[in-house]
Amino acid sequence: MLIEESFTVKKGIEGVWVFLRDIERAGRCIPGCDGIEILDGRTFYVTVKAKVSYIPVTFRVKTVVEEENPPTRLSSTSKGEEKGKAGYLSQKNTLELRALSASETEICYRSEVSITGRLATFGQRVIRAKSRELAEEFARNIKARLEGTAEVPPEETAGGQGRGILGRLLAWIQGQWKRLSCKGRFN
Length: 187
Fold this sequence. Notes:
By secondary structure, the protein is α+β, with helices and mostly antiparallel strands. The protein has helices spanning 13-21, 23-27, 124-147, 165-182; strands at 2-9, 33-40, 43-52, 55-69, 73-82, 88-101, 104-116. It has a single domain (2-182), classed as 2-Layer Sandwich (Alpha-D-Glucose-1,6-Bisphosphate, Chain A, domain 4).
């Protein structure tokens, strides 16, 4: 499944790059992040807790930065296993930054995600919806941290509880519009 998204932050491209390459700080923006283990500047593990439909899952995901061109492009691969062996995740990620001005940056990312095992039996629709929800939450968390508007509240990183239906609908609509502006950038 393919997830593409873009969003804009009120911070210069160099500051955004430094933040995103700080694994400890950026990793805490991952929804459900329950721990980060840094092996080196290019390899790290993240433990992520989430709910897929009604089932709580915990993945331990290893991410390796494969290529980077500071401060505009980074590609990585991620592989992980659910602790109860309910599923396996593999992901290829591309991140691109574009300076819109000295104090504004567009962040575009693309993830090709594959989930196998029992979790995959929920069907692509459920998995896709959950993946998109987590991606949108990650973008909101990064934006909040970079713009200094708020710390990432624990309830926001624990699977999106605390956000009403209208907030989710608005975030989805905004994501669709932003995604359209990012299409075609990864060719």
